[in-house]
Design goal:
single chain, 7-stranded mixed sheet, 4-stranded mixed sheet, binds 5-S-methyl-1-O-phosphono-5-thio-D-ribulose
């Protein structure tokens, strides 16, 4: 399994996803600020992987201080938590992690025990994501038939989950079970998670795939070339609305028009039961240079105004089923 987030006992190692596929470069750190910056810069990305990296980052923040009293420790940890929370606003897993780490801090008053408890909680969060994504991969694989061509968008594989992957985990598992599947993956503008990361993972897994630009998806759906679509999620609201990479909503509407099942795969750490529907989920707006420049080369006339939301909201009515470690929730039949 590809390991995007590695705890090495006293430091955190992250596979720098901005360098892939050209280079397999790692970033090793003991500094929570470096972890926070790696999340913001998307050196580590994908909602579950962000949650896991942030957990280790928070634990590293706790180890930074020695010989302080409980009040000083808690005040320092509140800065660490705020720094992490400010990295990426949409991925629910980040906030699930922060809530869990916060509750550890509130439960224990001995600072030495606290540091140990925080690192243990981070390891637990990581191991839970691994188990959850393994189950999701198996449940997702069952939805595909031998001979299917499946479309996926962005990257929801081992890189994005610090585990087995969700959407791509299901594809990898289907192939492992001997199903003859093929994949069509979208490029995913502007940061090319599809062509850089999903293509890399599918190649490593030996799954036959063809890359298309985002705007080709409707054409291939209308030709009958796609039998199912599966994507991950950054946050799922209480009513089942799904926030995922920009372009997901468009694919879901097209899937309905073309009678193609549209599946979403995500661990429970992505579910936001406190938010009633997708419209209340914060959508991250990223730097406009992600669109005006390609690897430092300016592609647009000077002064071009740009909109760059990183995610969109797919209303629950377009989703055929949501796959989590608790099972498969079918539209109109059962809920998670
Ligand atoms: O902006 P990114 O690359 O972090 O966005 C990632 C996605 O949209 C993924 O589909 C999502 O986080 C699920 S990853 C299992």
């Amino acid at each position: 399994m590809i390991r995007s987030v590695n705890w090495l006992g006293d430091c955190l190692q992250l596979l720098d996803q901005t360098k892939l596929p050209a280079k397999e470069a790692y970033l090793t750190t003991t500094d929570y600020r470096v972890v926070a910056s790696a999340i913001t810069k998307m050196q580590v990305r994908g909602a579950p992987a962000i949650g896991v990296a942030a957990a280790y980052g928070i634990a590293l923040g706790a180890f930074e201080f020695s010989n302080v009293n409980l009040a000083q420790f808690r005040s320092h940890m509140s800065v660490v938590m705020k720094t992490m929370a400010a990295t990426r606003p949409t991925a629910k897993n980040l906030f699930t992690t922060i809530e869990r780490m916060e509750s550890i801090i509130q439960k224990t008053s001995d600072t030495c025990l606290l540091k140990q408890a925080l690192i243990e909680e981070a390891i637990k969060i990581h191991s839970e994501e691994q188990s959850a994504t393994q189950i999701i991969s198996k449940l997702g694989a069952n939805l595909f038939r031998d001979g299917d061509t499946i479309l996926t968008h962005c990257n929801a594989g081992p890189l994005a989950t610090a585990g087995y992957g969700t959407a791509i985990g299901a594809l990898i598992e289907a192939q492992r079970q001997g199903k003859n599947i093929r994949v069509i993956n979208t490029e995913t503008r502007p940061l090319l998670q599809g062509s850089r990361l999903t293509a890399w993972e599918l190649k490593v897994a030996g799954i036959p795939f063809k890359l298309i630009t985002d705007s080709m998806a409707a054409y291939f759906m209308s030709k009958g070339s796609i039998q199912a679509i599966i994507v991950g999620a950054d946050r799922i609201a209480k009513n089942g609305d799904v926030v995922n990479k920009i372009g997901t909503y468009m694919l879901a509407v097209l899937a309905r028009e073309n009678n193609i099942p549209f599946y979403v795969a995500a661990p429970l750490s992505t579910f936001d039961y406190d938010t009633p529907s997708g419209e209340f989920i914060p959508i991250e707006e990223r730097n406009t240079t992600e669109i005006t420049e390609i690897y430092g080369t300016v592609m647009t006339p000077e002064g071009t105004e740009v909109l760059n939301p990183a995610f969109d909201i797919t209303p629950t009515c377009y989703i055929t089923a949501i796959i989590s470690e608790k099972g498969v929730a079918w539209q109109g039949k059962n809920s998670i």
